[in-house]
Design goal:
three-stranded antiparallel sheet, 2 domains, TIM Barrel, 16 strands, TAT_signal, alpha/beta, oxidoreductase, globular, dioxygenase, 2-nitropropane dioxygenase, 443 residues, nitronate monooxygenase activity, eight-stranded parallel sheet
C-alpha cells in the first residue's frame, strides 16, 4: 500500500476528536500519548522487535508488520473467515490478491467439491490461502473426513483451519508432514489449550459478538487477552467485531497477531451471498442481530448469531416453544448446493441453516443470515473485497501513525481507548442477545 505525502500530512494534522472517531470512541473523556501502542511509554517507536505489554509476539513498532505477516509472507495481518456457502474462490482470491489470506469455506462439501474449489482458487491467485472445515457431525454424517485432508495434502494447500471441535491428531500430523500449517478456531481458553496440545500452529479466538456459529462465552477482547496470558500460542488471531481499521488496532493491542474478518466481507462484491442479504447488512444498525439455536435441521441445536428478520423475532429465545412438527411454511425456498461443481437443487425446509446465495429463491424473512453484532455497524456499502482490505489496513496504519507521531497528549491508551470496545446495542434483555447469557449452548 503506497502512502502519499498528502496522506502523511493529514495523519499528522489529526486532532483528538478525529482520532477518537477513528477508534469509534468519540465523546469519551480520553487522552492518548506517544509510544503507548507498544504498551511501554519508556521505549521509542523505532525499536522494532519489542513485545507488547500483554505478551504478544514481536512486531515492528507502529506498523502492521506482525508475526502473521512475517511467518506467512503476506503484506497485511488480515484473514478472511472461511464462511460456508459464501467464501468461494472469487472472494478467497480477492482477499489473497489484496495482501491478506483468503480462506475457502466448507460445510457439507464432498471431497471432490473441495478439490475443485482449491483448483479454482489457484487459478485466480498465487497468494497464500487456506481451507476451513467444520469438525462436527450432522444428519448426513461427518462434515470433514480423512478424504478431505488427503485432498488438501494432494493439492498442497498451505493452510488448513478447523473449527467447532479440534481436529484429530492424525490429521494434524499428516498436514504437518505435508508442510501445511494448521489453525484451530476456539471460543474458550480450555479449547485453545486443547488445540495447542493437538499441534495447532495458530489459534483463532472468536468472540461472542461474531456472526455465525460460535461457542464463545466472552467478547473478543477478553478472549484474546485471556488466551495470550494463559495459553500463549505461537500465533493468535482475533475474530468477532472486526470490520474497520480501529478494530484491527484494538485486536493487535490486546495481543493478537492478526485479525479474521467475516461479516464485513459478506458485504463484498465477490462474496457468494444473496444481494438482499448483503443489502440487509448495509442497512443493519444497533440491535440488528440475535443469537438463536433453531436454525438447522441440517445441523441442529447449534448456537448462532444472525440478522433479525421475521422468523428470528418470532422464535429467538423461544426455541423450547417451537411445536413439532414445525409451523408452516414447510418449505421456505429453493437453492443450489455446491454451485459451479455439482449444482445440486435443494428445497430449503423450515428453519434451514443454508445461507441465502445468488441461487436462492424464496422468503428471506424466513432464512438464516449470519452477522456480527458490532461489524454490521461499520458496513456502509457493498464494495470489492480489495477495497475493503485496503480501507481497513489504511485506517489501521493511520491510527498507528498518529500514535507514532505523538500529536496527542497524555498516556491512558491501553486502559481507556484500546481497552474499550464499541457498543453493539444488542443487549436488550433478551437472553439470546446478551453475551453474558449462554443457556443456548458464537472465530
Amino acid at each position: 500500500m503506497r502512502r502519499t505525502k498528502d496522506t502523511e500530512d493529514a495523519v499528522h494534522k489529526l486532532d483528538r476528536r478525529t482520532f477518537l472517531d477513528l477508534l469509534g470512541l468519540s465523546g469519551l473523556g480520553l487522552a492518548i500519548g506517544p509510544g503507548c501502542v507498544r504498551g511501554d511509554a519508556g521505549r521509542g517507536p523505532d525499536e522494532e522487535g519489542e513485545a507488547l505489554s500483554n505478551g504478544s509476539r514481536p512486531v515492528s513498532a507502529f506498523s502492521l508488520r506482525t508475526r502473521l505477516t512475517v511467518d506467512y509472507g503476506v503484506p497485511f495481518p488480515l484473514v478472511s473467515a472461511g464462511m460456508a456457502f459464501v467464501s468461494l474462490p472469487p472472494l478467497v482470491a480477492a482477499v489473497s490478491n489484496a495482501g491478506g489470506i483468503g480462506v475457502l469455506g466448507s460445510a457439507t462439501e464432498p471431497p471432490a467439491v473441495v478439490e475443485a474449489r482449491i483448483r479454482a482458487t489457484k487459478a485466480l491467485t498465487s497468494g497464500v490461502f487456506g481451507v476451513d472445515f467444520i469438525v462436527a457431525t450432522g444428519p448426513t454424517g461427518a462434515f470433514v473426513t480423512q478424504d478431505h485432508i488427503d485432498v488438501c495434502i494432494a493439492e498442497a494447500v498451505p493452510l488448513v483451519i478447523f473449527h467447532w471441535n479440534a481436529p484429530e491428531v492424525a490429521w494434524v500430523d499428516a498436514l504437518h508432514a505435508a508442510e501445511a500449517k494448521v489453525w484451530v478456531q476456539v471460543g474458550s481458553v480450555a479449547a485453545a489449550r486443547h488445540a495447542v496440545a493437538v499441534g495447532a500452529d495458530g489459534i483463532i479466538a472468536q468472540g461472542s459478538q461474531a456472526g455465525g456459529h460460535t461457542r464463545a462465552a466472552s467478547r473478543t477482547k477478553s478472549l484474546v487477552r485471556a488466551i495470550r496470558r494463559q495459553v500463549d500460542p505461537a500465533l493468535l488471531l482475533a475474530a468477532g467485531g472486526i470490520a474497520d481499521g480501529a478494530g484491527v488496532v484494538r485486536a493487535l493491542w490486546h495481543g493478537a497477531d492478526g485479525v479474521v474478518v467475516g461479516t464485513r466481507l459478506v458485504a463484498s462484491t465477490e462474496a457468494y451471498a444473496h444481494p438482499d442479504y448483503k443489502a440487509r447488512l448495509v442497512a443493519a444498525g444497533a440491535g440488528a442481530t440475535a443469537v438463536q439455536t433453531f436454525f438447522g435441521p441440517e445441523w441442529p441445536d447449534q448456537r448462532q448469531r444472525v440478522l433479525r428478520n421475521r422468523v428470528v423475532r418470532r422464535w429467538a429465545g423461544r426455541e423450547s416453544r417451537i411445536p413439532d412438527p414445525s409451523p408452516p411454511p414447510a418449505t421456505i425456498g429453493t437453492t443450489v448446493l455446491f454451485p459451479g461443481v455439482l449444482d445440486v437443487p435443494y428445497e430449503m425446509p423450515k428453519f434451514s441453516a443454508i445461507v441465502p446465495t445468488p441461487d436462492t429463491v424464496g422468503d428471506l424473512e424466513e432464512m438464516d443470515m449470519p452477522a456480527g453484532s458490532e461489524s454490521v455497524l461499520s458496513i456502509a456499502s457493498v464494495k470489492p473485497a480489495a477495497e475493503i482490505v485496503a480501507e481497513m489496513m489504511t485506517e489501521a496504519q493511520d491510527i498507528l501513525d498518529v500514535l507514532a507521531a505523538g500529536v496527542l497528549e497524555a498516556d491512558v491508551l491501553e486502559a481507556d481507548v484500546l481497552g474499550a470496545e464499541p457498543s453493539d446495542g444488542d443487549a436488550h434483555g433478551d437472553a439470546h442477545d446478551d453475551d453474558s447469557d449462554h443457556r443456548a449452548s458464537a472465530d
